[in-house]
UniProtKB/TrEMBL annotation:
The keyword Cell wall biogenesis/degradation does not apply. Belongs to the 'GDXG' lipolytic enzyme family. GO terms for molecular function: hydrolase activity. The keyword Hydrolase applies. Keywords: Hydrolase. Gene3D superfamilies: alpha/beta hydrolase. This is Alpha/beta hydrolase. Residues 49-251 form the Alpha/beta hydrolase fold-3 domain.
Length: 278
């Protein structure tokens, strides 16, 4: 399947997700980066989750993930900004991270405070949610109040034990698919050990609190476990929520499956106090 066909297929990710009621949408350009606001009725207007979509850095968009981000925003009672960062292979690492940084800088100019902001993402977007927080700290800008990762893909070396042990039960994230997307994302093989592309190679001392939501059937389950271990080793705050027998980014079943709805509700309950909401 050619890349254009893959992108068309992955744009249909939103189809399992029920349209959330009481959410309006607004298209914006944030420092040159296209994005979509999801604004639930009655939500806190000064709290925001910056949502970076998954798709292996090569597929997906603000449209494929609009409904998923809106469900979480509605449950948390905040606004969500879904970022349409540049895709590989046309734009290789670190173009995606540069776009995320541009969006956060734009939010500061719009009056949104870092302590009222969370970074959220699924799969490759979860990688960016973490990497953006590190990148902000590296240039001495305020970091978000919290980070939420849904089925994160973090290890560009693809060394996780569950890549093999869960291969028979994970229907999507096979090794061959991960390797193909990695080749398109990275400029050269050595980038697999660049901490900006591989968050498992970072030091999580003084990192914001992290919530990890992942399915028990995922080949990438070990990425989540290793992330939690890294944070716990430096006495950081992390929640690892493994939902039995669930697939990669099962959260797309929001509004349709209780496992997805309950997982998003747990995230929202954890996230609200991080953003200063009762």
């Amino acid at each position: 399947m050619d890349l254009a066909s893959q992108r068309d297929m992955f744009e249909e990710w939103h189809l399992p997700t029920i349209e959330p009621i009481g959410v309006t949408y607004e298209e914006v350009t944030a420092n040159g980066v296209p994005a979509t606001w999801a604004k639930p009725l009655g939500a806190a207007e000064d709290r925001v989750i910056v949502f970076t979509h998954g798709g292996g850095f090569v597929t997906g968009s603000r449209f494929s993930h609009r409904k998923l981000a809106a469900h979480l925003a509605k449950l948390a009672g905040v606004h969500a900004l879904i970022v349409d960062y540049r895709l590989a292979p046309e734009h290789k690492h670190p173009a995606q991270l540069e776009d995320c940084m541009a969006v956060h800088k734009w939010l500061r100019t719009q009056g949104y405070k870092a302590e009222n902001t969370a970074t959220v993402g699924d799969s490759a977007g979860a990688n960016l949610a973490i990497s953006t927080a590190f990148e902000l700290a590296s240039v001495e800008l305020p970091t978000p109040a919290a980070v939420v990762t849904l089925s994160p893909w973090l290890d560009m070396e693809i060394k996780g034990l569950t890549v093999e042990s869960n291969d028979a039960v994970d229907v999507l994230a096979k090794r061959a698919v991960l390797e193909m997307m990695r080749e398109m994302f990275l400029s050269e093989p050595a980038d697999a050990t660049d901490p900006r592309a591989n968050p498992l190679l970072n030091d999580y001392t003084d990192f914001p609190p992290v919530y990890v939501s992942v399915g028990g059937f995922e080949t990438l389950l070990d990425d989540s476990r290793r992330l939690a271990d890294l944070i716990e080793k430096v006495s950081g705050e992390v929640v690892l929520d493994v939902v039995d027998e669930q697939q990669h980014v099962f959260h797309f079943n929001a509004g349709r499956a209780p496992e997805a709805d309950q997982a998003l509700s747990r995230i929202a309950q954890w996230l609200r106090p991080k953003l200063g909401l009762a």
